[in-house]
Specification:
The protein is mostly helical and 135 residues long. It has a domain of 91 residues. Helix content is 69%, strand content 0%.
């Protein structure tokens, strides 16, 4: 698999694995997967980027299913599952396809944070509007 850039070009900016882990834990494995997708698409093989995205979608779906089957609802389990997926994205995808990731410039995490906060605020608003919180 060929990287998306050639060695004579400047290295593209990527999201750090730490940011990917944080977004996976705080928002969802899908949020971390989208950031990993952007990093791998810009600096690694595009096929690996697509694989990371589809794996994140599958992992998120399985996590939602698992969390709905457990009778005790706790945010800690959700955060733990997201953090675990963030480590998979880091230790497998980044290490395999971007072994020299420390040498890449970093993208700012502010824009993805604002997007995730807006999406989260919408879901909280929708739940409050329907009276679905606290049932």
């Amino acid at each position: 698999m060929e990287p998306a850039y050639t060695p004579d070009q400047a290295k593209p900016a990527i999201y750090s694995p730490r940011v990917v882990r944080g977004f996976s834990a705080l928002f969802s494995g899908l949020a971390g997967g989208i950031l990993a997708f952007h990093s791998l698409r810009d600096a690694g093989p595009p096929a690996a980027a697509r694989q990371a995205l589809w794996a994140s979608i599958g992992y998120t779906a399985l996590s939602v299913l698992l969390l709905n089957l457990i009778p005790v609802k706790t945010g800690g389990l959700s955060i733990g599952l997201g953090l675990a997926w963030g480590y998979v994205l880091d230790s497998y995808y980044f290490k395999k396809y971007l072994p020299d990731e420390a040498s890449f410039p970093r993208k700012s995490w502010v824009k993805p944070l604002l997007i995730c906060l807006l999406i989260s605020a919408f879901f909280v608003w929708a739940l409050l509007r329907q009276g679905g919180v606290g049932e």
